[in-house]
Amino acid sequence: MSLSPNFYADRVCLNVLAGSHHNAIEIYQAAQGHVLVGMLSKDYPDTTSAATDMKACAEKIENALSIGLGAGDPKQSDIVTDLAGIVQPQHVNQVFTGVGATRQALGQNQTIVNGLISPSGTVGLVKISTGPKSSGMEEAIVPVDTAIAMLQDMGCSSVKFFPMQGIKYKAEYQEVANACARQHFYLEPTGGIDLNNFEEILRIPLAAGVEKVIPHIYSSIIDKQTGLTRPEDVKTLLAMTKKQLAHS
Fold first, then answer.
1. What's residue 137's pLDDT?
2. Up-side HSE of residue 194: CA atoms within 13 Å toward CB?
3. Which of 44, 119, 143, 210 could hold 50 in an S-S bridge, CB 3.0 to 4.6 Å?
4. Residue 71 has what pLDDT?
5. b or e along 25-58 (b: 16 or more beta carbons within 10 Å of the residue's beta carbon)?
6. For the segment 106-158, what is each residue's pLDDT rounded down to a tens digit?
């Protein structure tokens, strides 16, 4: 199975959560394969059960699996590293300080590994203290280009910019997108993305010239009663993606 995500037009791949294996299949079909299906390490009691279930799901969706922390939880960092090495998915979410260990555990460069950086409140500066210990310390705020270079040093593929709270940090997000384009780095906007703001959030990095974009759309498209992601919403997101790329 491929270790590389199936980007639409070689630019955009959706990232959404699956509430079950059947839901994962529905999502994969709805997105015509242009999706990474998220499964969270914190949803399992131990690494063994997580790895077994994730592998079984990955086989049903041509390995379009994204291993997640769960709301960027730094306590999951080491577990995600262990899972990445065992499962060999197409995508791994990681805190800033966990990237190097995850890349080493994977033992290959094809799987996309993101590194979590957060808004700082100042355009051009980002917070990189997102790890298990560093997240509890005084914030480490650095220029976004430096943050990207540090991630590249560790074998990272992309910036996960979280929590975005939709377009609350639009000016900061715009500069992160500009920096990703300058540094030939991928970008993964995450947090508060829904069907209403998705097109604007996608348009910004595409217009900036970011090579590949992986928008994460989570709770807004999950049915609150069933806990499953709505396939019809995934179809809508794909249609919006196609529209934006036709205009970019």
1. 97
2. 9
3. 44
4. 87
5. bbbbebbebbbbbbbbbeebeeeeebbeebbebb
6. 999 999 999 999 999 999 999 999 999 999 999 999 999 999 999 999 999 99
Structure tokens at 26: 């529905």
Convert the pLDDT of each residue in 44-94 to its tens digit. 999 999 999 999 999 999 999 999 999 899 999 999 999 999 999 999 999
Among 232, 229, 204, 230, CA closest to 12: 204
- In the prediction, which pLDDT does 214 show? 98
Q: Tell me the C-alpha distance between 76 and 73, whole Å.
A: 6
Amino acid letter, residue 128: I
- Token pair of 202 as six digits: 């996608």
Hey, is 154 helix, strand or coil? Answer: coil
pLDDT at 206: 98
- Predicted local distance difference test score (pLDDT) of residue 247: 85
In the chain, the amino acid numbered 148 is I
- Strand partners for 119: 126
Question: Is it the case that residue 1 has pLDDT exceeding 90?
Answer: no
Q: Which of these, 129, 96, 126, 139, lies nearest to 114 by C-alpha position?
A: 96
**DSSP H or E segment with residue 114:** strand 112-119
Element (H, E) at 184: none
Which pairs count as long-range contacts for 225-234, CB under 8 Å and 24+ apart, including other chains?
226/19, 227/19, 228/18, 228/19, 228/20, 228/23, 229/16, 229/17, 229/18, 229/19, 229/23, 229/27, 231/26, 231/27, 231/29, 231/30, 232/30, 233/195, 234/14, 234/16, 234/27, 234/30, 234/31, 234/35
Which residue has 């997000």 as its token pair?
Answer: 173
